[in-house]
Every structure is written in structure tokens, then in C-alpha cells.
Amino acid sequence: MAVDSGGYSSHSIIGGVLTYFLLPGRPAEARFLTPEEKNWIAAELAREEQQKHASRRITTWQTMVYGRVWHLTLVYFGQAAGFYSMIYWMPQMLKALSSQYSNTTVGFLVMIPYLVGLPIMILVSRSSDRRLERRYHAAIPVTIAATALVFLGTIGTTSIFFSVTLWSFVASGIFSLWAPFWSLPNEFLTGFSAAAGIALINCFGNLGGFVGPYAIGAINKDTGNFRGLVLIGFFLLGSAMLILVLPKRTARAVSRREAP
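RE: above sequence
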């Protein structure tokens, strides 16, 4: 099955345009918040910025060589390798297991892991925000996704149901990483340094999106099977380990006041 990369690009462009017009830029512009909630959020954001400035000021240039930023970049590299490997190789694997099915049927099967991952991603995100905990909320789902990939690459299966179930674990684990992960840079970066740090993480981390699918393709060509998924599983497991050795949440994150 061919993958239409142009479709992903057009979806990103459409999503970016809709975000510009529909997503509030600041609390004061959010129509779904009461005036009290807007004032509270604005005060909390200002207090957090002051605390980050007081603890340590990191300039934009320092951000480019800051060890913790590159630490997060390695985490995102493993995640990107897993995410893009899923995008490109899940349809191929399901098609190989169900050659009697049409491409349309395989397309519907591919939708299932995404549909399963969506509500789980939301639940994990809400739990992470409610508990103000990021590391375990990111590492545990990624570990589950890594385990599912290892099973897919080693055990293999002729069962479409079992394969779709494992891919659902992969999708749920990878999607659940995003919200807790992207909360981490803002714990120690602010202003332009935050913009530079997040851009660096996204830029170099996304190189995993090339390495992962390419590695699976090379291994598939040599072995005639999908053992390359095991390698990507270890990439994800490495990301989980790197997340767990991150410093615990700061006093700033713990001292949040209750919303009105």
C-alpha cells in the first residue's frame, strides 16, 4: 500500500489555518472561560514566568547547547521513530496478513488503532494535568507501545484481530506521550528560549521519523519479515528510560493554587 504523504501535508496546513482562527491566543480571548477564570489563569502564568526567571535565566543561545534540551530531543527522536514507523508500516503489515482484503478494507482496519488511541490520549492528558505529574504519564504509555512493537516484530501473527489489537496499544502509547512530554520544556524554559528549545526538540527529534521507517524497510528487505519493528520498540523503550531519569517536577509545578 502506498502512503500519500501529500495528504498529511494538506491536513497539517488546514489544521494550522483552523488553529489560527479558532484557538484563543491568550486566556483573555477564551470565550469559554469566566472573567474570574481568565484572571486566575493570567495571574498563574505570570507567577510561573517570574519563578522561572528567578530560578535561572536561560538565554536563547544557551538553550541550543543546554543538556536537558538535548535530553528531550533524544526522547522525541525515539517517539518520532515509532510514530512514523506506525504510519508507514502498519498498513503494509496488515495488508501482508490479509491479502484477500481490498485496500479499502485494510484502510478501515488501519483506522481502528487511531480511534482507540484518541480517547486514551485524552484520558492520560487529563490525568497528567490533574496530578501535575509528567514523567510516569509519558513513560508508562511509551513502554506499553514499545512492548507491543516487540511482540509484533518477534511473535508475528496471522490473526488480523490480534495484530490490530497490538497496533492499538502502539498508537495509544505513542499518542499519550505528546501532552505530558510537551509540558516538560516549559518547566525550565521561558520566552524566546522556550520557543528556541521547542523548535530544536521538534527539528532534530523528527529525524527519527526518517530513521525509523527506513530501518524497518532495510531489515524487511534483507529478512523478508517485519523484525525491524523490534528495533523501533527498543527506540521507544529508550525514550521511556530517558523520561524516567529526568528531574522530578519542580516546586513551581507543585505549588499551583486551586482554580476558583
